[in-house]
Amino acid sequence: MQVQPASPDGRRARPPQRPGFDPAAQPWIANPGGLDPVPLERLTPAALRRRFAEPPAWEPDANDPESKGMAGRAVRLASVLIPLVLRPEGICVMLTQRTAHLHDHAGQVSFPGGRVEESDASATDAALRETEEETGLPRGLVEIIGQLPDYFTRTGFRIIPLVGLVRPDFSPRPDPFEVAEVFEVPLSFLMDPTNHRLHSATLPSGDARTYYSMPWKQFFIWGATAGMLRNLYQFLRA
Question: pLDDT tens digit string along 3-35?
């Protein structure tokens, strides 16, 4: 009998759920729509605060229908933090790669966050709690400046994406049970659609699926994480 790994506090992973296909191997097109990058002057802390304080009229990405199609099936509420780390050389987005034994989204790149528990005062409280538990980022270093539209997943989650500016004076301490690695990607890279790929896949069931990816070095950012980043792009370029 195979025993699932346990964390130091006794948590055990349920068998991982896999997507049933290789997301990185599916055909794709680059920069659908031939869009331009978000201007660099919009990617400063002051400009980001202004944008969320006075949001423009905009729509979530039309090429990512999965979230809309899953809206009626969501049964679990979750919140994530999109951490924008204020590096001297430019803002970076902090991401995590989940460990391979987890039940939900095993081995995938994700934002820190998780389920909203009854003990959480709000979705914001849940995102900050989970972020600190997963990465060691103290909530006192995070300034929440806004949120993006809810994102719905095939695994039954309704995700509330919160955007926060993060002071960089901390060292990540990943939870070894949940997080294999913490890494950062320049915000300017992620807000340049020439780095966005739109994939088309035929699932084992015969159903069609489209999803975004934004590969960075050895990391394959795809699915819900890429979809939320694409919505951030659409919000900032509007």
Answer: 344 445 555 555 556 667 899 999 999 998 999
- Per-residue pLDDT tens digits for 48-93: 999 999 999 999 998 876 666 666 676 789 999 999 999 999 999 9
- Maximum alpha-carbon separation in the chain: 57
- The Cα 166–Cα 185 span in angstroms is 14
Place of tokens 């995590």: 96
Q: What is the pTM of this model?
A: 0.88
3-class secondary structure, 87: strand
* Cβ atoms of 101 and 4 closer than 8 Å: yes
- Spatial contact of 84 and 165, defined as CB atoms under 8 Å apart: yes
Q: Do 107 and 98 touch, CB atoms closer than 8 A?
A: yes
